[in-house]
User: Fold this.
Amino acid sequence: MKDLLQENNRQKHQFKSYYCAGCLLSKPCQLLTGWSSEWKSYCCACYYEGERDREVEYSSLERVLGSKQKEQVRKIVQLQLLRGYLGCRQCKSLAVDAYSLYEKNKLVCQPCLARKTGGSSSPISFLGQSKWYKKRWGIILEEWLTNYRNLPENKSCANEWLKDREHLKVCQCLEVEARETYELFANSLREMEEKLKECQCEVSKKIRVSDYDNENYGYTYCEKCEIRIAGAGKMGVIKNRNDPRFWGIESKFKILCLRCIGRFYGKLSREKRKTFNKYVKRDYK
Assistant:
């Protein structure tokens, strides 16, 4: 039994490691992404397209600089909220839920949230942030928020200020970092385009099952209505009837249940209609 369990886990690990989490078709050669300990991996084409989608964000130096300025303002607002937090009325804790603060600018008591819902993100407090800035950057957070209403852009900026207290009057660290980020991303895309010529990702004929955890192994979900669909036994692929290409259908969805396939019934050939009706009578999904 133990040997069987180990073999099963080994097979699951292979599916986790070697099939693209984006298109579910390719075995990634890891040329662009490199080898990672995370189970989600992407083929070179999908990874490159994902980076290209971010190109709008880094399309110009002005856009990158504006984005960094907005992020800096957002960080200051969140630290000011933490500094003014008097603690939870129920448990008196000064720790708030980090996700609520970073995503919604809301101060939600982390211990109370954990007891109420059974889970939460990591706790964060002004005291903890103060200790971090003191240890990492050597600055007193309270002093910066009170006197300067600002923060150093990075550790090197903080070091320059510690050497020269007049550094803020001529500080251009934000502009320098924005330029470095812009140039780094542009160079990275050019390098990826060159590497794509050497890509050796292997394309499979069948869509891989997208869920690999212990509970859903061998199952996936219709990309349109999200109904759960069984895969083709232990092969780690979807059944032919759930592949739009099997029916001769052109669709942006790679996995569809029979109910969603039925919406294209009028476009099916005569033979495919017979097959479809046979599957429906058998109550297949």
In short: Residues 61-178 form one domain. The beta strands are 26-27, 96-97, 123-124, 202-203, 219-221, 228-230.
